[in-house]
Structure formats: C-alpha cells, structure tokens
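re: ur question from yesterday

yeah so i grabbed the chain u mentioned. its 309 aa long if i counted rite. heres the sequnce exactly as i have it in my notes:
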Amino acid sequence: MSEEFRVPAIELRAWRQFLVLAETLHFGRAAQQLNMTQPPLTLAIRQIEARLGTALFDRTRRRVALTPAGEALVSPVRQLLQQAAALVAVAGAAGSGAVGRLRLGFVSTVGFGPLPGWLRDFRLAEPGIHVELREATTDVQLAALSQREADAGFVLHAPGMLPAPALEHLSLGTEPLVLALPAASPLAGARRLALPALLAQPLIIFPRAIAPSIHDAVVAFYHRHGATPVIGQEAIQMQTIVNLVSAGLGLAWVPESVTQLRRDGVLYRRLPPSLAGAAPQSETSLVWPGDAGPVVERFVRFVRASLTG
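ran it thru and got these structure tokens back, copy pasting raw so excuse formatting
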C-alpha cells in the first residue's frame, strides 16, 4: 500500500476522546467525562488532527464546533468503539463454547432414533453453534476424527467393543440385531423360524472394515450354531442393505431401530425367545477427542442430559 493511502495508526483511546468531545463540544466537560484534565485532551485531539492531516474541530474562545471532516467521522468512530466493546463478549462466548462450529458425523442408524430431535433441541438451546452434519460409516468417522476433520461422531460397534479406545465416549445404549427378510421368502411368513434354514440363506452384510466388531459378532453367531455365513452381497449403507433384501438377494442382520425403514418386499423378524438372548447386539456411542474444545463439551453435556432426562 502506498504511503499516501496508508491508514494512520490511532489508538481506540484517542478515538474515544474525539467522540466525547464531538458529543459535548466543550473541552472542560469532555475532559471531566474522560476523567482527565483539559491539557492532555487538547494535546490528544491535536495529535489526531496531525496524523489525519486535517482539522476536526473549529475552536474559538466562545465555542467548539465540528469541521466537515469531524462530522464525517462521528458515526464511523461510534461504530468502531461499539464493535471494539463487543469483542470482549464475542471472545467470551467463543471461549465458553456458546459460539462456534460443530462438525458432527453420524451413522445412518442414529437417524432412525433420537438424532433428529436432538439436533432440533440443540439448535434451540445453542443458537450460536452451527452444526455441520456428515453421514458416514464408523471407519470414515474415525479417520476424520484422527485428521481433525470432524469434532465428534455417533458410531456403531458391538457392546463394549469401542472402535477407538483413545477417544472419549458416551454410550447411547444397545439394541439387538433383527432379521430383514425378503417378503417372498418362505422364512418371512413362517410361524416359527427354523434356525438351520435361516443360517443357510445368502447373507447381505457390510464389509468388515466398516464396523469390525459387529461384523465379527454376526459371524460368531453363525459359528456358535455350526454354520458358516454365505456372503451373498456386501453394501456399506443400511438403506442399501435393506434395498438389496427387498430385491430378494438374501437376508440381513440390522439394528432394531432400522425397522422404522419401511421397504416393499421386506419383513423384519426377531429371533424366537429361546434364541433372542444369543442374538448379536449393537451399541451406539458418541465419540470425541479429549481435547476437542468447549463447543464439543457443550454438545456432550446436552446429549448426556437428554439421555438421563
């Protein structure tokens, strides 16, 4: 920037002195409001005028009046001082987490449960926090958290088998996996589910890398009953898995909350009571780095209160 267009460095204190004098048009009263004597105030105004290269006040023995340049500065200087005063409040709000951004990941199954209501209520409770949502599988969320590209996330795993023990976590609870069956399959309408026939059906499941502990829990269930799962198809999203079931490509084990996802050609069945206790389970947890900051801390407190309230 060339010298002739460089903005003079004038402290906020000097601008406040200018504004008080502009509002009172009296050096004595202005000095009294500023808790200073008149000579330093006179010197301060002269220094401002020298830096600006123009007079801001016309002075006579009887009166003090603003010049056109002085009049032009009153409004922007008032705004400047108001904005400067607001910086303290802005910094305090940001430091406490009342203002900021929350980059939140979530697995699709949480969308069938409490997440929509939580987001609505959190927005009402914390209007200064902007939530950026990203639907992603557990493995993608963990990578984003490790790269600091996300602040917190809702992940899916087998009960007690946290996918990243180094992260802080809050459990939202467990739920059984239930069967999603093609409506055209004889198993869907059977009064009693015959386990050997069930375990012989093609299985639609997510790749193990997506959620290893749940994948392993499903496979272990088959092994405990003397069977090896026949993988018919793999898919990443629960919606896609259910759609493949509706196409008759096999059955799937899905969290119970997914039964809210209705698709033509799909029936959901729970295991009979004699086997229900042995059914694979899933757990949903909110995870976040321990040093995530005050915005995340506010969200965690909100979720914890929602769970206990």
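noticed a couple things. Residues 1-5 have pLDDT under 50 and may be disordered. also The CA atoms of residues 12 and 84 lie 8 Å apart.
anyway ttyl
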